[in-house]
Sequence to fold (1301 residues):
Amino acid sequence: MNFKYVSFLFLFFTSLIFAQKTEYNSLSISDSLKENANAVIRLNQIEILISSQRNMNVITKRVVTVLNEKGLDAIDAVENYDKRTTIRNIETTVYDAFGKEIKKFKRKDFKDQSAVGGSTLFSDNRYLYLDYTPIQYPFTIVFNSEIETSTTAFIPEWYPLNSYFVSVEKSILNVKYPDNLGFKKMEFNFSNFNIEKTLDTSTNLSYTATNILAQKQEDYSPVVNTIFPKLMMGLELFHLEGVDGYAKTWKEFGQWYSDKILLGTIDLPDETKMKVKALVGDEKDPIKKAKLIYNFVQQKVRYISIQVGIGGWKPMLASDVDRLGYGDCKALTNYTKALLDVVNVPSYYTILYGDRKKLNIQSEFVSMQGNHVILSIPNGDNYTWLECTSQDDPFGYQGIFTDDRKVLVIKPEGGEIVRTKLYEDKGNTQISKGSYTLTANGDFSGKITIVSGGSQYSQKASIENLQPTEKEAHYKDYWGHINNLKINKMSFSNDKDKINLTENLAVEAVKYGSFTSNKLIFAVNAFNKTNAYVKRIRNRKNSLEIQRGFFDEDDVNVILPTGFSVEYLPANYELSSKFGTYKTEIIKIDSSNVVYKRTLFIKKGLYSNEEYEEYRLFVEQISKNDNAKIILTPNL
Amino acid sequence: MKIIKLTALLIPVLFVTEANSQNFELGKVSNKELLEKFHPEDTTAVAAVLFKKAKTIFKYNLSRGFTVNHEYTYRIKIYKKEGLSWANFEVPHYVGYEDMNDESVKFSNVVTYNIEDGTVVKTKLNGEGSFKKNVNEYWNLATIAMPNVKVGSVIEFKYILKSENIVKFPVYDNQYDIPINYSEYITEIPEFFIYKPVLTGYVKVKSDSKFVNGSQSYEDQYKRTTNLSYKQINSSYITENIPAIKEEDYVDNIRNYRSSIQNELERTRFPEQPVKDYSITWEGVAKTIFENENFGKEINEQLYLIQDIKMILKNAVSNEEKLDIIFKFVQSKMNWNKENGYFTEKGVKQAYLDKTGNVAEINFILIAMLKLAGINANPVLISTVEHGVPAFPNRTVFNYVIAAADLDGKQILLDATHKYTTQNILPLNVLNWTGRLLKQDGTSQEVNLVPTMLSKVNYTLMTKFNNLGHITGKFRVQKMAYEAYSFREKNARQNEENYLEKLENNLEGILITDYSVENRDTDLSKPVIETFTFTSENHCEIIGGKMFIDPLLFFTLKKNPFVQEKRQMPIYFGYPKQEKYNINLEIPEGYLVESIPKSIKIATEDNVILFLINTQVEGNKIQIIITKEINASILSAEYYDDLKSFFQKIIDKQNEKIVLKKIEP
Fold:
């Protein structure tokens, strides 16, 4: 035993003596950095060299110790390239736990892959990546790369920490730039982390971040953007795919965008112009005109993703969309705008982040941002927003993909930051009315009408277009607590003016109620059990965010079987907290009729990490009471 | 003679052509097709293939010899918005051949038809709607985005896929998730090539073949046009009204059940040359594979292992011990690069040096080591679940290889690519029908891969309720065979705190303390044992002064996994499984048991699916013993109704509560 111990020590010593790369030794990592970590970024050093408005080099050296299989993604040995970006150097070296070199990979060992995938039919972008099979854990990998690009419109954002379950020992950023290009920067969420600005002159900027512990992903957390530290950088004089740009303000940025990127893309053939004018006829109201045009677009085009033209920033010509009947978000938005121009309705190309989480354009930092485009039409003091990629969305409806966030509206006179529509908590409704009958065997049959509005509309509207088998599967999952569920009838009506989706269903299920020693027991709330299961999280760290509130109301008549009397009726229940209110009433009308009423109102809001447990308990109380049961005893 | 044999393999149905009055030529779209609002047979269809025709023909050229052209034509009707995705069409083609030119795809006759104000409007695709993309070093992708397509449109297009690969034709898909009204596949094969056509799926295909004269001209070495005449076999496969095939849960691989036609080369027989066998029988397959230098030669390579084997077997005596040591050695030393295949790539020696390799390299090293140690071991070719069922003998049915060792006549299957496999416990996607064991002498035999042994899980719970309905208790679970393997694969590399968080939530929010686990990463042949203490406030309802307890506590099955009304495909479980629960409850003082679910057995006639519950009360103690068994890896669709009602009965039974009432003072 002793002998083994000695030889181990000996090995350790020899490697210390002979290996050159002792800093890559995995054994020296502190315990705190290993906690919750699948990988440790030992060093992430990024040098950004901007030599002119049309030239930027980014040199990366990243040293990552991977502790287990789940940490492999942290290596991130990949670089993108396209027509304007070349990879000048890319290579890695792998070291074992003691820092001894075990393998080297040169550029030729990297795989070359097109970035086309998923729904994208075409894109110029490609990438080189390394597909490494580890032979032991832990190991340390050193990744070196250099890229050169003429695009200076995007300076890579600096993320000292960029993923969960990964800790960072050291992250360094050095930026060099000429003093005449208007270099600017902005820090986000730095305060909770150990980040030091080491240099800040008219031509140089440096930061060092040290010892950032691994973070755990937690449900109901605010968007990562507001948690992880981030440095945004930009130039007032920039370059994008052959086009120079200058912008100090959003106004100037918008102007440049209008002039250089959008100009000349909205011509339409005369035939189409005439068709559209005929379609609008004598209508004078701009919003009513826009509605006719939007409907025309929805019938005519389909969405496909094609990333070409100024790095995917220039929309396809409106005349091409007109002829081909397809395009991506830029093309379809621009096409709709072109049609609206024909009938003299002003509208603006609008850039934003399309996401179920509400992501803002960083309004304080003027730069190229966003991943999606919609159209805005001035409507009094407000705007009407059009999602032009959808063939189903109601006119002006934003759902949960573009609602309540800061966006950039591009007007000919310049850009403007505006906030999109907020769907008020109380307006995100689901109103259910119905009844069900229970037989003496415990069998169930019922009818329900569910009307959903506001942001709840967008969750329901897609059901209407599902295949019958998928619809059935949806309801069997939605009412998963009702076993043996059979759907006898379903019909929908979609009121796109009021933005209401109505579901009408007739269902049945044998043995909904169960017998225990002759007594028939069943849960009175059959149609709307809360499905928001909030997990218990040990040592919650992040704040709690409820992004959208909602209001549910249920009114259900329960018809009891004859030959039974009610032994137990759950008491009325009310629960109120900062998160919302919940109320149920169970009213016995007569020996065979009971009315069940339920309201649930959840508010949107941002709360501290300690309040998460309170929220969990709040929801747990609701879900317990949603399970309240009636007990019936057979009459003798 | 051989021709006769070939036609005998097919189901000869004559006089099938010319039966249809519809026009299956491109460019002749009828008003009826354009005006049709929904599919007459399947009103829910979002689109339909009105016809699909394909033809495979051979071309001869002096420098490259015979090559093949596959021509496809389609006419598709769009009925609903959701069907618009059919207006984009992609054809992947292979460009990774070492000794052949890249495949190429060329689209033509791409037209969209619409009715606008009562007249038919044709829109042709220009260059901008056609894309070529080099995806990676092996694959290119040709894509078209059809112009001006909306609900109601009819689209047509044609493409030719040119290939020098005559060994295997692209699979002809004869069924989609939308209906196909008419499908026709024709092959015209010169007599020098014998192919085996393989038809899969439930759809009835009418096939026919004829022996006719064929010829073609080519330029000889003096640039003169020369004629080449031969006999050829023309085969046709015609299917009408093919229903859409839909995804279902619990399916191993939908491709096993979808209609398709595959052709693989069996042999070539050129004039004045010996007949060359590619496959035909399993023996033929075995022989060709063994003769490939990336198989036979590699598997027999041994020298590089001699030193290591001596060292690791220094103290080993019995063959059992040797096998155990060698397997664990290869399993821990070698690291799988996630590449399948039964041929080596960089070779076993390099793989051994690198400590990484594909499936063939790792398991060949294992086989070579076993042989060196005097244990008889052979490769077993396998088709993984994703690859489909290896129904007919040919080479491309396989994509994976494992080892079979023979210990005193007992066969032990081994796969050293995964870190948690053990003797006869293989990765779950390897458990697919049968494999083919290849012996050195060129013979082969079938090996059953589907586990027949039950993988067991035993739960033991000692719990106590207090008068508030809160439970405290001790929990112990033992997982064996594939249950242990699955647990290790999923959880062994997981941080314990994260695992416990998940476990607590899976067990309906109980609180876990004093967790310990045995044999998780070591002693893989032993069961995994987890024990912990728990508390819960959620597993008892107090209604009107009485306590209602779910007899299975947090194990109560809430949802029937089988909800779909009709079933098309067999139901796949992976391996036979038995769960046993031994739950002991101590009731609070001052209470007594008013009622308790009765003992019951629910089973199918053949006991393939079985559920047993036994309940017993003794003083203040309740014991519940439950056994649940699905003694099959895959069940035919006929079992579906039984299976569905079986789970329903279990749920109904579990919903019966234990009721406790207060003892009257």
